[in-house]
Amino acid sequence: MGKTSLAKGSPYSISSTHFQLCSSTILRGPQLSDPHLQACKMFSFVKLLNRASARKNFGTLLSTRSSCALGTRDFSAGLTASRHVAPGCDEAPLPRSAVQVPSRRLSGSRYNVPPSAEFVARPSGIATMCKLPFQQSAEGLDAAFIGVPIDTGTSNRPGARFGPRQIRAESALLRQYCGGTRAAPYESLVVADIGDVNVNVYDLKDTCKRIREAYREIMAAGCVPLTLGGDHTISYPILQAVAEKHGPVGLIHVDAHADTSDVVLGEKIGHGTPFRRCVEEGLLDCGRVAQIGLRGSAYSADAYRWNREQGFRVVPAEECWSKSLTPLMADIRQQVGGGPVYLSFDIDALDPAFAPGTGTPEIAGLTPIQALEIIRGCRGLRLVGCDLVEVSPPYDTTGNTALTAANLLFEMMCVLPKVKYY
Predict the structure, then answer these.
(1) Whose CB has fewer CB within 10 Å in the chain, the N or C terminal residue?
(2) What is the pLDDT of residues 165-199, one digit of tens each?
(3) Rounded distance between C-alpha atoms, residue 225 and residue 146, angstroms
(4) Distance (Å, rounded) from C-alpha 83 to C-alpha 377?
């Protein structure tokens, strides 16, 4: 009888007949007819066997009639499907020498695990964030990726309306764990991609209303939104919805620009004004606001005076040059404390050498390493929402800006409360 190795270097192997029976049992059922979704289950199955192999604790996986009836998970809707029995289980149960029944069957897992590129080619399938399942609403989710495809509020180069789509496409490269921190978000949180807000590209005020209403539903579901922008205008209506639930929140704002202008070209709503509006409406706990990476030419000699007067901590890019930002984030964690805090990251905070695909680039910015230090420095905070904005694919000829954005959004997910670390 042939042997099937479970993984490279695995000291254990099982008969190919038993492996095929186990895998066919897990993948069986009308809910998993899509090969992309089948691979999700197959990846989890092989991963489970690999872990058991490492513990060298095997007995029988499908040795009894009940263990042949593995529940399946509908990855397209996040619902538990009916139980299915592999053909032949009643007539020919596997011998006890096969594999041991796990304490919690993998099919009973309530988490959504993206398919591994070990089993599903990255270019295949519908482009959702991190290849996660798509879900119509935030119900039942701990966190959700959501796109807001607008650039109606931009003042310079447009194109950010295409940001969510391109970030999703580049996110196919991402894997299940954070290698640097050993975070395991898909073993800790129920996460899905819930699509885009249905924006009105002809009317920015109506778009803000639509965003606010969409995020009210997300907040009511107890879900943490991870937003793919879109220009920075979107942070204003998002924070309106967030503050309705949590009250005034702290803010960690990473950006080349302060975005606290009052009126621009006669308009009070745009990507240069969101946090001014937030202060006016009492959405922010101003003593718990930090702005990092601000730089560039200005409209006045003391461009950030108003911000400091409100109680913001302002960290210009010059204070970040040629140093680690880990000590800075330790101070900011003390500043924002244990209250609710929102993280807003404009991709133009990074130097345009790293992120050229954006609407208002400014030279001498942060590095991707510093961006990781900032986001990883948010671990332990009570994050109630995050956004990554201003990716403009028409100016991103290599795709590196969108790829960087996808990685930063993944890192944001990894520092959410309740995420497990190995």
Answers:
(1) N
(2) 999 999 999 999 999 999 999 999 999 999 999 99
(3) 7
(4) 43
